[in-house]
Amino acid sequence: MAKSMVERYEQLLLQDPTSAVFVELAKALLEKSEHARAIEVCQRGLGHHPNSVIGRVLWGKSLLHQGKPAEAMEQFDQAIAVDKENAHAYNLIGEVLVQRGLFRSALPILRKAAALQPNDGRVRLWLEQTQQALSGGPAPVVAELPGITAHELEPKPFEEAAPPPPPTPPQEAAPPPPPEPESEASEGSAPPPPPESWDDGERDDITRQFSTIKVEQFPGEEPPARPATDDEITTPGQVTPSRGPVKVYMFPPRKAAKPPPPPEEEDLADTPPPFAARREEYDEDTPVPSAEDSEAPEERAASGGGLLPDVDGPEAREEDDSGQAPPADTESESLSTGVMSAADSGGGGGLLGDLPPPEEEELAAVPAAARVSATAKTSSPSRSRSSAGGSAKRALLDDIPEAVEPKVTTGSARARSAAQVDAAEAAAAYEKELRDKLAKSAANPSFLQRYGLKLAVGGVLAVVLGVGLSVYLIRRAAQGGQTLTEVLERTDRAISQDTRNDFQNALAMIERAQEMDDDNPKALALKAYTYALLFADHGGKIEDRQQALAAMELPGVKDSHPGLALATDVLVADDKARSTARAALLSSTDDSTERHALAGTVLLEDKQPEKALEHFKRALEVSGRNVRALVALGQYYQDFDDYPNAIKVYGTAQELSPEHPLARIGMAESRLALGQELNEALADMQALSADTSLPEALHGRQQLIHGRLLASLGKPDEALPLLEAGSKGQGPLVFDFLLALGEASRASGKLPKAQEAYEAALKMQPKSEAAMEGLGRALLDRDRVKEVLDKLGKAEGRRLSLVRAAAYARQEDWKRVRSELEKTRVNDRYVPEAIGYMAMADSADGNGEQAREVLEKATKTSKQPRTDLRVALGRVYWRLGAMDKARAELEEAMKDPRDYEAACSLGRLLLARGLPDLALAPLTRAVERNGFHGEARDALGRALLAMGRTDEGFKQFTAWKDDNPESSEAQKGYALALWRSGQFAQAAEVLRGVKVGANDAAGHRLRAVILFALGDSKGATKSLELAAKNSSSDPETFCEIAHLYLRNAKTEEAAGAFEKVRADSPDTLCGQVGEYYVYPEDSGKTVPDTLRNLASKAPTVWDKAFAQTTLARVLLSTSTSSTSPNLKAARAAAEEAVKLDPFNGRAHLALGLVALRQKQEEPAVTALTQAVELDPAHALAHLSLADALARKQETLARSVQEYETFLKLAGTSEEAKRVKKLLPTLKKRVK
């Protein structure tokens, strides 16, 4: 049927695309869930009817079904925008939103609707239900709520929704045709037109649609035929009571207007026909009611009239209330024909309010007896509604009305009075006869009359009990034979066992409980708590956290189970909310076992064991099956060295939950501490290691105790892999575990953890030589040599002397190295490690060949590979200049996965040979194996800086400085990284806090270049002098001295410094390039190619930049014009230099000079200004900038300042004479 209706609506729209029937088509499509087609129909229809409110609402409703709430809200907004004071639009939208469960969006719409309709109880009810849903109450049951839109969003039958044919004005209507058969007459009759005063343009689609109401004739025999009198002749448009069914057309008013009051009874004869003569009267006389005049359907139904107006009219209700019977002519005739009810209800404005009352003469012409019989036989709903206003208890014959004398409206009153008397007597006689029959039948009841009611009730009860029992048995079978209470108890027991599998079983039972009662608060609370435990203990999956929060936020869950709610909040809290959640947990007075168990754990973590113990005890008093509380209590005893009680508690926990991982681990740790049942403990830990459900958080602890048990049972090889994984030990008496953990942490590069482990071991046994040795080696790995000597300086023992010797070797204090190694000798023999240190001491003292022979012999005769001996041999080869042999030994030593010193030494060797790209791999491996090794960090940082990866190098020095802030080497490396990054002031500040030794040439040289960058030429010169004094042959120091002379415009002295560099270190690029930089004009034709070749082979980016800068100067000196090819090549070389070393003033100076030669003054001034800022002590940079600024009048003042700065820096140079002559003239021009 729905498909047929859709096709018929589509056919109508095809005939008239502008028809408003598109609304009904959209409703039908929505009912079939064809939302896309409904949207398309609304879109086309709104093109012709843009002000259609219901069209917009249906469009929005379709979008909501498609999951597009934002677009739906746009359509609702446009519907409201048609008329913002139209309460009907708000009703439609509010109903749609509530049906879709969008209560928050529906609330403001319903509020507006209630404000526009303050007396409409239906809207207020919808609003209250929606507010309750948002406040945590139950969602509104839409089916139980009274409609506020008259079901306008539901599709109508096609006959009601189809538009009527164009009406013919009643004034011009032809006389009615002769009567035809009833079926043909009903089909051929056309509805009258709506009142002309209703303009279609002012009404929405609902008011433009009209419905036909078919009032059926009441059953019963028709009155006897008689000729019509003159008074009964009907006019065109008048309704004849005796003709079959009558069609009445309702035109809903645009607003809730109250129809005019019904005419007085004596004027009924003059009532004009409908719509023809009363149209103007309807438009002019219909008053607009106030808000209090309108009555809601519910209120009207409550008053006894139902949702439709009373058929007896206001006068009849008044008569009923006073206890008087209504006149016969106003009651019986209306019931027999159905027309008088419409006339009397005209004051109510109901569905039949538009029909005129019948003529009084017609009522008088019908015999009273006939009217009484028709009334007695009727079963019309109008009759029942009419009689509802009477007394609550009615007699058996109340349905038989008394004969009432009708009003006499003609001259034949006497005859009619006699007829009425006869009818009254007949009725009285009939009533008496009926009463006698009833009394006789009551005196002799039959079997069924006596026991029929009881038998019927018993049968109904038996059927009900049978159906109930069947349903109960079926439900019990589906639920496993358990009630809701039993399922929840089993769920609680599963959760208390505190394992992953038990949690999964609990969730399955919670699903079963929700099938029984979907909104059960306890089931929802247990669901939230279970997901929270999974999140906290088993992987931390975000999905588990979301499930916990979603279940706990459902209405009524937190209020009914506050303890579970608080525990859930703590378990799923993030870092920001954790403190607040814990505070709420501890301050709560809830007495649930879950809250007490978790509160005790939190207090134990906060170092409040006494309060924690109280909570644990209370948790077990509330529920002795709480395994989580038992395990936490066992941990409490274990922390306080009460291992016997810990074993008892853990044993109880394992009886309740045999597979609980934490109880098993705690039992093993307690057994190990007591030295009892170690084999059983080891077997249990081996089985636990194969358990895939073991929480990730317990893997480390399980591996730790497993390895410790293996070591205790004489299986160190199997224990080493577990201990290398690294974990944290538990318990104050696990001294051997702490030593093993420290060693494993050292091997894995986790030196802070190793240090903590050894320090904890020392706290337990302060005189333990093994713990002190481990601590000393961990500190050495972290380059904290001074701390090693402070903590182990007075300790005795050969192993401790060996550690101190290693510390002195880091400081290259070989005399003390020999002194400490003498203490390790036993029977004139040294341990292999001591042999390595002794050989390096001999090599440092000039006995390299002797050291080489000893190390080669020790390496060959060692029964096991000795990485430390190979590292020492590689360093001795390096000192002897045997670079290839040194590299081979160090690469062999790097094969040890735990060694980092071999990789560091190999990287430093390659870096010293000018191969930073090759050094990068071993240095990176060294840092990966031990990120706290300062020597490796320093070498890796320098390699990255040399390759131009300044940011990465800066990170290496920063990490080294942060880990060892007291190390002067770390601070100097950090200052170097700052200088290379252009942060000159910060570099100077860092270096100012470092005490540079008198013999530290590199430290003095670094301070000099930083001071030059800050413009402190005097301080920089002094630092360079100290560096040269301590290292007279260092090429880098003399390169900086040459640049110092260049800054002061002393070219000859600079050339001499570069010459010394070439003499002492021929392979140094600084010396090879410096000669061409000092005298670029004396270069030959092959010099540019030479410089390009040197730049390509330069080991560092600053050497490459220096070569490119020199190339630019050489090409600039050979260019003859601004368009010379050499000048363009010079520009490219200068730009490349700036790119390679952006914080070098020399590169910017070369770029500025080239730009000046190209007559590009602005770029030249910019580059020269940058050169002056990066190297304020460079006199030639100031001179070049002054010359560039002197070309324009507006920059003469600044030019004078630059000339004066030049004279302060290089007042004795050749260029100073020219400046001194030029300066007075410029000053006059400035004035």
Give a verbal description of the structure.
This is TPR domain protein, component of TonB system. It comes from Hyalangium minutum. Keywords: Repeat, TPR repeat. Pfam families: TPR_16, TPR_19. The protein has 1231 residues and is mainly α. Among the domains are: 160 residues, Alpha Horseshoe (Serine Threonine Protein Phosphatase 5, Tetratricopeptide repeat), CATH 1.25.40.10; 223 residues, Serine Threonine Protein Phosphatase 5, Tetratricopeptide repeat (Alpha Horseshoe), CATH 1.25.40; 96 residues, Tetratricopeptide repeat domain (Serine Threonine Protein Phosphatase 5, Tetratricopeptide repeat, Alpha Horseshoe), CATH 1.25.40.10; 59 residues, Serine Threonine Protein Phosphatase 5, Tetratricopeptide repeat (Alpha Horseshoe); 71 residues, Alpha Horseshoe (Serine Threonine Protein Phosphatase 5, Tetratricopeptide repeat); 161 residues, Serine Threonine Protein Phosphatase 5, Tetratricopeptide repeat (Alpha Horseshoe). It is built from 65 helices and two strands. Strands 1-2 form a two-stranded antiparallel ribbon. α2 packs parallel to α4 and α59 packs parallel to α61. The chain is flat and about 155 Å long. It starts with a helix and ends with a helix. About 21% of the residues have low confidence.
